[in-house]
Every structure is written in structure tokens, then in C-alpha cells.
Amino acid sequence: MAEFTFHHGGVSVPDLDAAIDWYDRVLGFALERRFYIEAARSHTAMVRKGPLRFEIFEVEGAAPLPDDRRHPPCDVKTHGNKHVAFRVADLDEFLAEMEQKGADIAFVVREAFGKGCFIRDCAGNLIEFVEETDDEA
């Protein structure tokens, strides 16, 4: 089987500059580069934090994110890509930091199978953060 590694996740937003600022201020992603994708009519940015990247699209004439895509239990009821997830060492510490930064915390899970949370970026896109137990790593 061909080998591959993760490269980036992508989100569409109504305001590229606001999203670049949000991903930097809240999650520590720095602007790597900006470019325009003619075929999509998209002002685009790649932001990076270590090996992790997000591609952010501001597409001319794009529709806003539907309300049911903003809440994890509703979002999974529609086929398609859902979110990206990142590992955190301590969920409670992460949540405290996100609250301090004014992040929109959408959903918190603390179950026998694991714990994590979803936050919404400045456009309402869901991002998951998971605290793994020792037997998951």
C-alpha cells in the first residue's frame, strides 16, 4: 500500500483576515502563505503550527455555514467531512485556556470511552480536541 502522512485540513470562512487572526490568537497557528485560487475564486491562506496546517478559504459568493453544522450531534447526521481532531495532554487545562481566550466551546465529552471537546472557529467550523488515555496512545 502507498505510504502517506497527514498534510492539512481545510475550512471555508466569510472573512480570511479575521480567520488568520483567530487561528493565530486562539490556537497559535502562524501564517505560512497567502494565495489566490482562480478556479475556486478563493482568497486563501495556509496557516501552520509545527507540522500541522490549516488551509483557509474565503470564496467569493460562498453560502454561510448552516446552523446544523455548528453542533456536533447534529452535524454527524449529514454525510460528508465533519472536522479535524487534535490531541491535547490535559483536556481541563486546554478548556481553561480556551475559555480565557474567549473561544466558543461547542461541546464537551467526558465518557468511559474518552474525553474531548469541540470548539468553533470564528466562522462556526468545528475543531475537536481529544485527551487520550494511556491505552489509546
From TrEMBL:
Keyword Metal-binding part of the UniProt annotation: yes
PROSITE patterns: VOC (PS51819)
Pfam families (alphabetical): Glyoxalase_4
Classification via SUPFAM superfamilies: Glyoxalase/Bleomycin resistance protein/Dihydroxybiphenyl dioxygenase (SSF54593)
Cited InterPro entries: Glyas_Bleomycin-R_OHBP_Dase, MMCE/EMCE_epimerase, VOC_core
Entry keyword set: Metal-binding
UniProt domain VOC: residue ranges: 5-132
Name of the protein in its database record: VOC family protein
Organism whose genome encodes this protein: Novosphingobium pokkalii
Phylogenetic classification of the source organism: Bacteria, Pseudomonadati, Pseudomonadota, Alphaproteobacteria, Sphingomonadales
